[in-house]
Amino acid sequence: MRNLDIKSEFPESLTHGVRVAKQNRGSTGEGIWRVEVVDPLSNGVPSISLDTVVKCTEAKDNHVEEMPLADFIDFCVQYLDGEGGMILDMPFLERITEGEIRVFMLRNKVVNIVHKKPADVPDAFSATLFSGAKYSYESPDQWPELVQLVTANVPVIQQRLGNYDLPLIWTIDFILDTDKQNGNDKYVLGEINASCVGFSTHLELSKDIADEIVRLMEAEAVVNPRWVAFAT
Length: 232
Ligand SMILES: Nc1ncnc2c1ncn2[C@@H]1O[C@H](COP(=O)(O)OP(=O)(O)O)[C@@H](O)[C@H]1O
Ligand SMILES: [Mg+2]
What we know:
The chain is an alpha+beta fold. It has 2 domains: 2-92; 96-204, ATP-grasp fold, B domain (D-amino Acid Aminotransferase, Chain A, domain 1). It is built from 4 helices and 11 strands, in the order βαββββαββββαββα. The strands form 2 sheets. It has a 6-stranded antiparallel sheet with strand order 1-6-2-3-4-5, covered by helices on one side. A 5-stranded antiparallel sheet has the order 9-8-7-10-11. The structure holds adenosine-5'-diphosphate (ADP) and magnesium ion. Adenosine-5'-diphosphate binds next to strand 2, strand 10 and strand 11.
């Protein structure tokens, strides 16, 4: 995934296949667009012209719009406004039909997996609830390879994102891809959510989450005597 200069780079990017352009501040699929060229391109074209018609599908509700690439680019300029405005560009991963795999984290531990399958209708690629995706709640035991991958990489994620303390609860979303070298499954990071993650659909985790909060407050009380956990 890379931050894109949409005007100068997106026409070239589209020659590599179907793309997903993402605004930086979206949620529930808003401003997340799958973009594909409608008529097949000839091999080896370095870039496509701005009057090429593209089919754009928004993850919010899987609705489709067709327009010249120039119009799509003009439309996306709104996503660049203000602080943090940017557009991320990544290849469209067609194995999204097998579902997005949400790893639900309690600090450094994987505590749940949510498997989110897009609606089974033409053009659907969105794993968001409002778009009709179906969620199933699975045990981390069913995903040993992924759990191992995530657990081993928590320190790397933490370091790459600025060495902040880990959030109490956060989620890491993956989409499956196939490694071209050996045909093995590959997990591609789609996004990390670290704010406003709720656990009302995971109430069985309440005790573990409460225990973790108490541990954090006790640890804080050790380093900061003014903040004594549960002082009487
Ligand atoms: N590269 C991709 N390939 C296939 N589907 C994608 C890709 N990126 C995002 N999606 C789909 O779009 C949805 C919304 O994208 P996401 O990055 O999760 O944004 P949001 O913050 O709005 O949830 C995902 O749940 C997934 O279904
Ligand atoms: Mg998402």
